[in-house]
Write the structure tokens for this entry.
Amino acid sequence: MDQTSIEKALQNIAIQKIDYFKQIGSTNDAANQWLSSGGQGIYLCVADEQLKGRGRDGRKWQSPPNSALAFSLAFSKDHLPQIKPPLITGLTSVAISKTLENIFKLEPKIKWPNDILVDRKKIGGILTEANWQGDEFQSLIVGIGINVASSSIAEEAHFRFPATYIETETKISMKRVELLASFVNSILQHFEQFSEQQLLAAWEERMAFIGETIEIQLSEGKAFSGKLVGIDSSARLRLQDEDGKEARFAAGEIRQQAFVDRLDN
Ligand code: BT5
């Protein structure tokens, strides 16, 4: 993977600028810099290795060299997707999942709000960062990390959930640049074409743990448990308690008993 091969693989896609780095802190930071320097349109930043890859709430994301895909797409104000901001992570998850289904015949599940699981293990994660001015949505960065080869993970023992890798699940080895082009194509197509209704249906179809009893960890150590019944039109998680009463959550962390659930970074 290098600048030329990425540009070639994405030559028919409307992206204003592409940057490839052999090593970087975080591709989301590079995307933010592009926006701050007045970048207009859509920007793609790809890295072979991230030294400060991050997840939500300051957690770390591992993407060592030669093994994973780590990339970010930035959208300036006049190129923002039409869909409302709380649905963007879900839209990206659906686009990534469909690509894994189409190319590899995998059956990925989306662990609300931002994890892609295969066989109940984490194969990828999404970090969406939106910039606001007051309540006006100004720009957007969507960062995606996908485990391709098992060398993606240096310290798996510290993870909250078991991890997995495309090559482990499929026994297929595909050039990362081709995979990247398929993911980017799919994400941009979904951003342009998918309505909210289509998205909510496609998301629920692929939701991990649907019908199962889960626990959601809320801030300040609080938790709520119930049967996962789906998401609402604002992407809030819908849980039902034993009396059939429904509660909805805009943020939180799903725990599921069958999972190895470790606290880490
Ligand atoms: C995520 O956060 O899953 C979002 C990950 C987004 C990474 C991309 S890479 C390109 C762009 N640039 C960045 O700096 N970030 C984005 P979260 O749901 O908070 O999960 C983080 C947790 O996943 C960590 O605390 C670990 O337990 C676990 N983890 C870290 N690296 C992993 C990996 N490679 N595979 C599976 N699990 C991992």
